[in-house]
Structures are given as C-alpha cells and as structure tokens.
Amino acid sequence: MGQPDRITTAFTALREQMLSLAERITGNHDDAADAVQDAFVKLWQQRGRYESVRHAKGAAVMTVRTTSIDMARHNSHQTDVSLDQVTDTVEEVNDNDRSLAYNQVRRIIDNDLSHNQRLIIDLREMEGMEFDDIAKRMNMTPANVRVELSRARKRVREIYQSRIMEKKS
User: Fold this and answer.
1) How distant, in Å, are the alpha carbons of 40, 83, 89, 123, 168 from that of 45?
2) Rounded to whole angstroms, how far apart are CA atoms 40 and 15?
3) In degrees rounded to 5, what are phi and psi of residue 146?
4) Measured between alpha carbons, how far apart are the two ends of the chain, in Å?
5) Which of these three, 77, 105, 126, is where a domain ends?
6) What digits encode the pLDDT tens for the residues 88-135?
7) Cβ neighbours of 90 (radius 10 Å)
C-alpha cells in the first residue's frame, strides 16, 4: 500500500470516531468538522512519515485531538458568540430579524469567499449534494471538497462574528 493510501485508509476508518472526539472537545459540530479537516491536511503534508496504517491511525487520533484542543482554546479567546448561538438566537426572534441575518450571511458568502468555496457551500448546504457528487462536478477529490467547505464555513463564521462585534462597539 502506498504512503498516501495509509493516511486515507486510516482517516476513512476513523472519521466518525474522530469527529465525535473533536465535537466533545470543541463543543460544536462545525468546529469539530473543521478540526478533523485541518488534521487531515496536517497528516497529508507528512504522509511519508507513516510506516503502516496502524501508525497512521494513531497519528490521526492524536492530531485530531490536538487540533481540536487548539481550536477550542482559540475560540474561547474569541467572541462568546458562536454561529450555533447566532442560529439559536435567530430562531427566537421575528421573521424580519431572521431574514436580515440570513441576508448578512448570504452577502458574506457572495462577496468574501472564492468562487469554488461559494459553489461548494451552495451545492452542499443549499442543494444537499454529497461530497462525492460535488467532487465529480468540480473535478476535485472528496477530501479537497471537505477541506474547502471547512475553510469556507470558518471564514463565514469569522466575518459574521467580527461584524457583530463591530456593531456592538
């Protein structure tokens, strides 16, 4: 088995467990998904170091753990408003406020993301397409689609949170 296949095999076999671990650490599903994708990118960059799938699995779990902890620490120093909290708050307010929040997020997606990130978000979140189908359509690998989606979500959260903080100031 080639070296890149070890990482992919390990990651595929443990993806759900790693996502669960990351979610317990970060306390947020989107952050957990981002942490798992960030961990995959880190592991992929060092794919030549792993002697076996077992070795790659151990590295994968440890990398997800440390990436999740780093993300949780970073987010604890950030604003107290998470995207989930914004969504929960939006559900409690009237339809006009919900529409305003949706329009703000849509503008961020349209104006601040790359073409590929916009397309991936629309295909995944709006049309509900699977990663494999998006990958085929965009001539990418499913792993690359996941990474781009993770980066896009993170960018939208960061911009939205910064705009909320600007309005509070």
Assistant:
1) 9, 29, 39, 27, 40
2) 10
3) -60, -40
4) 56
5) 77
6) 444 444 555 666 777 788 888 889 999 999 889 888 877 788 889 999
7) 17
